[in-house]
Amino acid sequence: MGGAVQSWNPLWACLASLVAVVPIVWFGKRGMANAREGATLAAGVVKFGLVLSMLPLVLGGEVVECTLVEITPGLALAFRVDGLGMLFGLVASGLWIVTSVYAAGYMRGSKEHAQTRFAAFFAISLSATLGVAFSANLLTMYVFYEMLSLATFPLVTHHQDKEARTGGRTYLTYLLGSSIGFALPAMIFTYVRSGGNLDFSMAGVLAGTVTGGEGLVLLLLFVFGFAKCGLMPLHSWLPGAMVAPTPVSALLHAVAVVKVGVFCVIRVVTGIFGVDFLRELDVAVVLSWIAAFTVVTSSLIALTQDNLKRRLAFSTVGQLAYIVLGVSLLTPLGVTGSALHIAAHAFGKITLFFCAGAIFVATGKKYVSQLEGLGKKMPFTMTAFLLGSLSVIGLPPTLGLLSKFYLVMGTLQAEQPWLLVVFLVSTILNAAYFLPVVYRAFFPSPKVGGGRPEKFSWAAVEEAPLACVIPLCVTAGLAVMFFVVPGVWVELASSLVGGLK
Amino acid sequence: MVEQLPAIVVLTPMVAALLVTLLGLRRRAWCFPVVIVGLGATLAAATGLLVRVYRDGPVDYFMGGWEVPLGIGIQLRVDGLNALVLMTVAVVALIVGVYSFRREEDVKVPAKTVPFYTLFLLLVTGLCGITITADAFNLFVLLEVTSLTGYGLVAMGSSKRGKVAAFNYVIMGTIGASFILLGTGYLYIQTGTLNMEGIREVIEAQDLFGSTTIVVAFILMMVGVFIKMAFFPLYGWLPNAYSYCPSTTSCILAPLMTKVSIYIMIRFMLGIFGAEYVFQAHATAIVVWLAVLAVLAGSLLALAQVEIKKMLCYLIVAEVGYMVGGAWLANHWGMVGALYHIVSDAIMTLCLFLGASILWSRLKARRIDDLSGAFRKMPWTMSAFVLGGLAMIGVPPTSGFFSKWYLIRGGMEAGRWEYVVVLLVSSLVNAILFFRIIEIAYFGKEPAESHGGAHGEGDVEERVAAPRVRLVALWAAAILVVLVGVFNGELVSFIEKGLEGIPIIGNVGGGN
Fold it and tell me: Does the beta carbon of B457 lie under 8 angstroms from any beta carbon of chain A?
């Protein structure tokens, strides 16, 4: 590891989207929708640029640090960008640009109300996400974690109807309840035990201060406290959150929010406990099996879901559990695979959600069973859907293959062959719930059109607006591109385990 | 001038009260400026004292130059324990003073304006006096000044229930005061002095710790102060008194009365009897358990309320449990947390009561259900109210989060897991309470079945404007909620400095 560079860039990167709220609201109030979208886009580019500007330093093995306020001696709101933070920051801020284009197309295409509020809270959510990605200690992370829960609430409940109300209620109950009920006491306990230190460090601030029993309880409190990681049984907020408009589901509930959950888990395991210490305690295997259970169960549930977005949501639950499972293996390959999977799954899943949204905008269809023959009408969308599926399943030519490879190798390195089986079974299940969708879209079964009289006229269907189609092609393209040149991601992901045996 | 600050802080509101009475009889419109100037001056003096204590340590002041040994001197003492409380009293009083501009009650019954402001200022006089007096008997006198004006303020409302509540309040408050007076009397008989430090010195010098008189005095004073702060199970008078009184009254009483009572308890504990005496195993366990019950009872009863202010009142009962429990954890961080929470809770209670009062006055929203659609109608008021709610839940970086942080830390270090758990439970209950409100205010009572086109962009036709002045007061409180949170480090280091030299069992950093 190299040295630390003092710079305010992490703060600016975090604030860029928060500041953008002012022009967004200002333009929005005056009905200047294009200017409003322009402001969002500009903020996205600035934000991404700021994150990118720190990349060479981080790749050079350095960390970028800055301290905002010292809350009490030894406890500050502080940023520290390392490989993992950079990886997540890049993914979130980069995909925000794409999503803001998509959101403009989607929200106008489906004539949503309160688009200004939507854009404003979206921007705030992104600030919170980067805050989590760049946080230097547990307290900072917790602060931004809570901010994200609250900022996404108006997005989830955007439609303000009965369904949104129920979804929103579940959302906050799970996320806020768990973070206050579990994560907060765990954090304070850590603070007390570690002698007032909450800074993430490879050695782990808890190292040598807790017994095995306490360690297990603490680990579970953290993992379930950060319920955004969707580990069963605290996963049902995620399918519930699908009532949100699709851009929210795409960026927040496939990338930002849920990844914040697993990111926190990775941080706790690698930075608070320390991989070596956790291995010494020998308790992480409990976590492995909870994750393994989630992987298989959620895939089985996904199989039964006819609502496309819900199917995707359950798939996300499973994929998040991959990441938790990988890090719980406590091996270099497993941890690298976890970090890499944050990026890999992001590109794949956001593509799938974009497609689901595009289909909805173009046809008004929400159910898998309604999509027969759609491939001919929306070739770009459905091709992107195929690529996204391949990435999530973990097949070439996509980045998904690579992360899954690392994860599988991680199980071998940890000498846990049964967990290897879990990965394999889940891969088959993934294929089973994704590929038929694509197959039916391109090769409809003959009874369509001849069976029940369809009120819906397929003739009128054409591709979704360009603002929807281009983003999904871009993200699908990225998933493929990074299969060919995965260098940056692998390097960032493996920087986390530099010191591991 | 600087030497006279402790006297000024108490005398300014008193003189202002006098002026209000005299000037107000000529022209009612003069009341408000006098109140603001008076409270502003009080705040300035309190700030000056805070700075002095921060720089030079405790400030002692002898009224009229009568020193203590004569036994009749009135000593004022501002130190690390009470400088912040004094500051809080002054800030809250000023904000409520600003809020009181053109109260509905004054518009309806103009004749009540002058009495209201007079009582209001006398109440502030009493609160400031209680906070900085160093004399046990004066404390009782000033407590009665505060309580009597408080009864008056509560009874001034027009509602019938308010009068019944005021009567209850008088009875319970008087019983509490009698207990304190009895305890003080016992102490005087045994030690021959009324100066708190003097009492302590005599007890220590003559080793009176075993004396039954002292034990009885201690118990009497604690029970008295428990009644005054509405500590479980002696809280029955509070919810009605605070929710059926005029809204300005509730805004000043709810944040300050209970909090100042907590301060009195801590002053009695540390200033008169001393930590070694107070924190004996049984007593600590019993009081912490009572605090646990207080938090639970307050939270659950709050959950059962349909009226906004009633709900907030039960939350006060729970918060009192927080602070009593923290103070009785018998360790450093518990005490720090309790003292910090006095400030923090006063500000967030103020924010919530101001918000609720504006909502009541404009939307006639007494019940939670009445808030339907309030976000659209009064976005600024609702936002500030929600901010206060988030502080109650303990969402960072509001002050409520850090209160919990220190209190839970104290609880963990003391090994009082029941207290830790109950704080978390109460946070969760608060989350339910406030998100229920947010939900109703955001979605409306009966959400539309379908969406889209229901309300277009920039839909403002139903906006209800809150009076500017009140919004300023509300937002001042809301911003303070965040500031007290963000700068909690400074506040806590100040509190820690004040606690230096006061032995608390398990001092500094606890066992770890």
Answer: yes
